[in-house]
Fold this protein.
Amino acid sequence: MTVQKAFWSTTAGVLVGERTGEAPPKVHSIGIQDFSDQEAGYYLSSITDWEEVEFNDITSLLGTLTTRYWVDRAHALAVALLSGLSEVLEKEVLEELEQLIQTRIKAKSLLSLLLVAPLASPAKSKSLAVTSLKTNLPAIAAVWDKLSELQPLINRFSSLWLTIPEESFLQYARHDLWVRVATEEVLPDLLESPNSNSFRSQWNTLLFKSKQSPDQIKSLNTVGITLTGKLFPHGASVTPMSIADELPEEHIHKKKFTHYIAAEEKDSALKQVAAIAKTLAEGKDDIAHKYLRELVKHQVAGGDTEFVLKSLCNIAKKCADTFRIDFEHDCLLKALSLSPSDSWTLIQWGDHLKRTGDYDLALEAMEKAWQMSGNIIAQTIIADIWAMQGKREKALSIYKKIENCENNETVRTAIGDILRRDGHLENAEKEYDYVISKWESHRAYAGKAEIAKNKLLFQKSLSIYEKLLENPDTDEHSRAIYRSAQCRLFKLMGRFTEAYKGCELLLLKLQRYDEAKCLLTERIDSVMESSDNPALLRLGATLAFLSAREDSEAERIIKEFPKSSNQYVEYLASIMRLHLAVLKSDEVSIQWLTKELLQYPEMSTKTDVALADLKKHDFKSIIELEIELCLMAA
């Protein structure tokens, strides 16, 4: 295939082909009106940012450059807003950005470019979020809010980046690789990686995003390993099971460490704790470590070991809330070195280990805490750990051994959750019904909503969440979780406008980092995460091979597809199996799978489209549909 050359202007959105013989160069324009060949000469002469590009397929090149143009335009507009505009112009630019995110670009693409360096004035991003919300522009408001939220993390990340030895970069200049990390849209995920395994997984996606030499790949690996060691010096290399599509375990036990939080009675210690939290929020780790050493030294000198523990565990809790696992680890280790047998410190340490995926050590700490104190919280966390490792029968047996468990709302609800995740939907519903009859628990109602969703009863599930959100007794933390679940339902139903509607209310009400995360309804474009994560990841891999026309590998992967209690995921798997059957001209499988798809009346519209595409052998369209369904399931 012949490689051709053209010239591209990012700012103008113009692509000019090479002149062939006496024919004038072919001009393609993006975002501007067409002009005649004579006018083109005058227009093109004013452009100075020409960049040479090579291509085989002009259609493919135009698609790539069109996306790049609109993303770059959105970035330029966003930078202008951060620099400051008049009130009238600010409103117009915000409206254009909202329209671009809703129709042309991904919010994550814009956010990634805005993270290329820490903001000089972070408060400006927050004020733009408020302004956007007041004018009913939720999509761009979410970008401003997220940009503001990530500033401490980008400050810390960039500081660590500058400490990497120059020789680690090998084939890359330090600055060039930094810009690439930002433009490849992995930076937001890197900043929020909860552990080293997750960070390396996100980093490794850079290896496959463009053609690279072996030396460049080696350089990327070296930098990735160095960064991982700096960000996660204590390891935590096992990724905890993702339950992003479920109601979090922490929702059940969120008040477990109030013993320490409520116990701060000394003004000096309060000021020290507040100072450490503030410096951590600003990404100033060196200063935070200095303050921590001073706090411990001062309080140990005073002979009040018990209060030192309370201060350290309080700081650790604040770190957990802001995903600073490394600093949380240091605080808890220091607390344990001062008092290895303090049961509450052991419980908090075990919970930390559970969240980082060090399940064996977490169980060891919790068993010790349970033997020392008999605290039910330790017992419930032990059950949580077994459940997170997939050993749900063992988790159930522990829950059922808890004293007076039949009269414990938290335990009965957790049992219902385990039954639901195992696919025992009827038994789970019975547990939830019992909890509701005795305690009128909104958490159990949410469990029933998830069961309805897994049965494809989307409207029933939506009705339950709507009632929970209308209930004035629903606390703000729960309200954020239920709103996020409601957004996922709207996306599954294809009601994307409603998925975004109302986000401004949550942004105005919620102040904390972990709760604000629930507002990111733009997950339509993000990596798939759900309670059916293994199944969805397998379907995603199948789809990747189908797109590359590596049909035999796609078939091998989907053959190992695990049975899911989520009928939506099962429906998507059936479409992919039918896709493969058509590719192989397997008439028996085609007939059988077609009948199977017709067993999902709620999805009849999507089924009609899929069958029509496959009948015409329109594989491009069927892959687009499968991608859409995968993202809706995420």
